[in-house]
Structures are given as C-alpha cells and as structure tokens.
Amino acid sequence: MAVPPVPAGATAPALSPRALRDAFGAFATGVTVVTAVRPDGEPVGVTANSFASVSLDPPLGLWSLANTSPSMVAFGLGAPYAINILADGQRDLAMHFARSGKDKFDVDAAWRMNPEPPRLHGARARLDCRVHALYPGGDHTIIVGEVLAVSRSTASPLLFADGKFGRYTLDAGAPAVNHWSGLHGEWI
User: Fold this and answer.
1) For the chain, what are the domain ranges?
2) What is the DSSP letter of 98?
3) Which residues pair with 131 in a beta bridge?
4) Rounded average pLDDT over 14-21
5) Which residues lie below 8 Å from residue 120, measured CB to CB, with a gap of 6+?
6) Could you tell me the CA-to-CA distances from 185 to 59, 178, 179, 180 in Å, in that order?
C-alpha cells in the first residue's frame, strides 16, 4: 500500500509503534546470535537481525542492542564478541537466544573451556569482533565492531521478514553481484 505524500504546509499523521514495526519488518534480513562474555565471566547471547556491514578498510560491522538489555554490560569499548550468522534450520536456536533471562547456555557448557565468546556450532558464518565504537540510537545502542577473524560454511541462510522465519531461494538466472562494487560499478 503506497503512502500518499504529505502536502506542503501539512503535518504528517502520528506514527504508531505498530506501523513502524511492520514497516521495519518488511525488510527481509538474515538472523544472527551475538555472543560475548560479561565481566563476571558469564556468557551472554542475543538474537539480532540488526546486523549490517559498514566498511572493508578497516573491517567494521554494526548491530544494535536495547539499552535495557542485561547483556549490555558485556559490550564495553574493546570487548570481544562474535556475530554468529545463523543457517537455515537454526530457527530454534534463534528463538532460544531471543528469550529474556539467564541460562541461555544451560544446554552447552563447552563455552567454559574457551575464553572466547561462545561459538555456536552449525552457524553459516562467524565474525569474531571487538567493540570499536558505541553510539546512542534512541532506545538502543549502536555497536560498531572491528572484525578480527571470519569463518564461513556453505549452509543456506536463515531469513526473517514480516515476523516469520523463511528460506533463501537462489534465482538461478540472475547474474552474480559483487555487493561491494555493485553491478557494472553502478552502486555507491
């Protein structure tokens, strides 16, 4: 449904939180679980679809976390964390880490043997990062991370749009696009 333009001199109608959530949800995204370790040694993990690439040089990516999240304490400047990009078939893992509360790692104690942020097995990709910058973003904090290492599998991605999980289907007839330089140099 197209939104009509607001005539000159008129004010736009009030924006409802539900309408905004629905509009944001129209943008299909991948699904990540961000893992870290709090200063007290406890692991944290949160499901996030707010991840985006920022820069190749230096290697930076960003995501956002609610200011009220008890996990926020794990993401101070310089703190290590990992972006685990989920694969198709990891919906249950996404839902597990989307819930609030502690004991998200109660099913896997292997993280205790490694000082790194917890590794989620079966993820499509993993980006090991450290917090490079923090920016206020309304009710969230925008966390920019410097990417230190990456690993990747050939698994298909888990997608999320309109409040539902889905699968990626390759358009076999479409040309490959280098998303950093664009198709025929046309992207910015």
Assistant:
1) 28-162
2) H
3) 145
4) 86
5) 33, 35, 45, 84, 86, 93, 126
6) 21, 9, 10, 9
Check residue 57 and report its DSSP letter.
T
Q: What is the pLDDT of residue 180?
A: 57
Q: What is the pLDDT of residues 141-184, one digit of tens each?
A: 999 999 999 999 999 999 999 999 999 888 888 887 776 565 45
Residue 119 has a pLDDT of 84
Distances (CA, A) of 115 to 70, 108, 168: 20, 15, 34
What is the biggest distance separating any 2 CA atoms in the chain, rounded to whole angstroms?
63
- Tokens at residue 94, please? 């996404």
CATH number of 28-162, picked from 2.40.10.480, 3.40.190.290, 1.20.200.10, 2.30.110.10: 2.30.110.10
Q: How many CB atoms lie within 10 A of CB 65?
A: 21
Q: Which two tokens stand for residue 91?
A: 């919906």
pTM of the predicted model as reported, rounded to 2 decimal places:
0.82
Q: Supply the pLDDT for residue 138.
A: 95
In this predicted structure, what is the pLDDT of residue 169? 84
Residue with tokens 């099913």: 107
Cα separation, 79 vs 103, in Å, equals 21
Q: Of how many residues is the chain composed?
A: 188
